[in-house]
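Workshop exercise sheet. Pairs work together: one partner reads the sequence aloud, the other fills in the structure field after running the prediction. Swap roles for the next sheet.
Pair: D.N. / O.F.
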Amino acid sequence: MASKDLYAVLGVARTASADELRSAYRKLARKLHPDVNPGDKAAEARFKEVSAAYGVLSDEKKRKLYDEFGDVALQAGFDEQKAEQLRRMGGAGAGGFDFTDWSERFGGGGGGFEDILGGLFGGRFGRRGPRRGQDVHAELEVDLPLAVRGGTTSIRLPRGPVEVRIPEGLDEGQQLRLAGLGEPGEHGAPHGDLYVKVRFAQHPSYRREGDDLHVDVPITLAEAVLGGKVAFAGPTGEVSLTIPPGTQSGRSFRLRGLGVRTRKAQGNLYARVVVVAPEPASDADKERLAALARELAPLYAGDVRGKVRF
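Structure field:
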């Protein structure tokens, strides 16, 4: 954007009102949006250019600085007070102050001018000193067992895969900082950092709520009626669950200390039993099951759905 007139990018006059800017932007955005021009790189680049121009001109303060100082006001670290000093020293051109020939007009003077020039962008104008590399941000999807138990995985970046250590009890949305794995610095300055935001992949059986884990455990009709012990795969190995006789489908059992362990707490595991009906494979088995169901029907006391209300 530094080489183009932002008003020309939007096709409006420098005196355009906020409504005129908004109207021009919306018209161009509808025409150039990537959804309207899939795969058109030129349209995509133009859309970004238009959006960037509107982002400056729709902001009252940014527009004022751009009108006064031109493209230089858009650069990171711009100091309005320093720029005003330089403008008084060098005069202003049409559409903003012309910074292109400062070094030729004032470069030999040194002293106060160079102090001001160096301060305009926090010491980054002209001869640059060491500058720390940019931080890099990325997202990583991890499965629930890895987030609960901890371990290592990798993330693929443009420069290749990077190993990421996942701490035990990691929270979803937590951001991990990998020091020194960002962009390289300038003139011997250190690299930036890599920040990895973690999200959880959906688990087929378990879900996490805070430090607790929840799971549905299927049981047979016989196990629900007669009771007994059932076993299933838990986060730390096989879990044994005692089912009392006459257990109803949907009953939840709390298993202390089998949830997520963090530095502050130890969560629980909540196992909800779900009674599963048999699935007979043959016609003879289907008829046998139907006969058993008819025998069981009189054992229900009253309407099983009688408590359902809205």
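Discussion prompt: The longest helix spans residues 41-57. What would you look at next?
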